[in-house]
């Protein structure tokens, strides 16, 4: 059974689309890999799977083995740099036209989600992140039920709920938290994405929408607030073009100067360190934010597995 060799399973949920759920999943995966963990990402967002685009593997072809699919390798573990392996399986790989939303009806979607959970050969993984569709639809309920049936209690670390300052004002994210309570899925914490803006020109981080609502809401529900993630256009540049993020001198995020690159290009001309997304991501302002949020996810997962 495909989930048996996975240590920790984390769901990434959001009340509505476009709040950055897939980018949060992507960055949690990169951060976990940078922390030395082996990671799998399962993208079951049928509303428009965007995980393959995030990892630059849209054209990858999945191989079918007897009884299931083999995930795509984004990178292998590297003992010299200490990164863990990263593999991805997305519904997007199975769609005839990439980027299409799935138009199947409920039962077919539900069956697909179930099959996806059991028919991907993950091998050994420290973490499996599941990028779910937005909302609390039938697929979610089915996903939650299937996970509760197929995964061991000690594997199910819980859910990370993503919201934005504006979405907090809507009922969607509260619904999501209620969904977790009803289905018995533990909430690891809430992330407020698109909270502020890192200007690429003027070294300022500006609050364009009122931020802070995510924290208030997390407190209301008695769940942990994992932190705020500003909009960083350099993150988009990294994803879209593969260019290493750069910031004007003096740019500070959370009191840290981020304008000095963490990763200098290798002097000996090798491109190994600079070629992979995971290394380039270290130069993104959001990497340090995700590092501390990831540490909280790791500790929540370890607590669950140790009972
Ligand atoms: P969702 O999965 O919730 O539909 P996405 O993760 O696809 O949302 O995000 C929507 C768009 O916003 C994507 O192009 C993504 O790269 C971008 N985005 C999300 N969060 C950020 C951020 N903090 N900084 C910059 N761009 C972001």
Automatic annotation (TrEMBL):
PROSITE patterns: MRP
Residues reported in the UniProt entry to bind [4Fe-4S] cluster: 199, 202
Main location: cytoplasm
UniProt keyword annotations, A-Z: 4Fe-4S, ATP-binding, Cytoplasm, Hydrolase, Iron, Iron-sulfur, Metal-binding, Nucleotide-binding
Localization: Cytoplasm
Record region (Disordered): 246-267
Signal peptide: none
Pfam families: ParA
An annotated Gene Ontology molecular function: hydrolase activity
Family (UniProt): Belongs to the Mrp/NBP35 ATP-binding proteins family. NUBP2/CFD1 subfamily.
HAMAP family: Mrp_NBP35 (MF_02040), NUBP2 (MF_03039)
Purpose: Component of the cytosolic iron-sulfur (Fe/S) protein assembly (CIA) machinery. Required for maturation of extramitochondrial Fe-S proteins. The NBP35-CFD1 heterotetramer forms a Fe-S scaffold complex, mediating the de novo assembly of an Fe-S cluster and its transfer to target apoproteins.
Protein name listed in UniProt: P-loop containing nucleoside triphosphate hydrolase protein
């Amino acid at each position: 059974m495909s989930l048996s060799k996975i240590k920790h399973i984390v769901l990434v949920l959001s009340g509505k689309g476009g709040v950055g759920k897939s980018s949060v999943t992507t960055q949690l995966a990169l951060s976990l890999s940078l922390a030395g963990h082996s990671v799998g990402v399962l993208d079951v967002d049928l509303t428009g799977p965007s995980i393959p685009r995030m990892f630059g593997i849209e054209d990858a072809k999945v191989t079918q083995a007897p009884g299931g699919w083999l995930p795509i390798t984004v990178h292998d573990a590297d003992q010299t740099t200490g990164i863990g392996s990263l593999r991805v399986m997305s519904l997007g790989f199975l769609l005839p036209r990439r980027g299409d939303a799935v138009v199947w009806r409920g039962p077919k979607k539900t069956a697909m989600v179930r099959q996806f959970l059991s028919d991907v050969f993950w091998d050994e993984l420290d973490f499996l992140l599941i990028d779910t569709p937005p909302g609390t639809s039938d697929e979610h309920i089915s996903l939650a039920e299937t996970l509760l049936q197929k995964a061991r209690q000690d594997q199910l670390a819980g859910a990370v709920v993503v919201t934005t300052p504006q979405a907090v004002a809507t009922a969607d994210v509260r619904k999501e938290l209620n969904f977790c309570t009803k289905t018995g899925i533990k909430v690891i914490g809430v992330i407020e994405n698109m909270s502020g803006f890192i200007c690429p020109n003027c070294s300022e981080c500006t609050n364009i929408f009122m931020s802070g609502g995510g924290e208030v809401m997390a407190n209301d529900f008695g769940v942990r607030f994992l932190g705020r993630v500003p909009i960083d256009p350099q993150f988009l540049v990294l994803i879209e073009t593969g260019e290493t993020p750069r910031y004007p001198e003096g740019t500070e995020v959370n009191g840290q100067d981020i304008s000095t690159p963490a990763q200098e290009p290798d002097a000996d001309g090798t491109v190994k360190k600079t070629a992979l997304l995971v290394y380039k991501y270290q130069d993104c302002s959001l990497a340090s934010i995700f590092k501390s949020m990831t540490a909280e996810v790791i500790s929540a997962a370890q607590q669950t597995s140790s009972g």
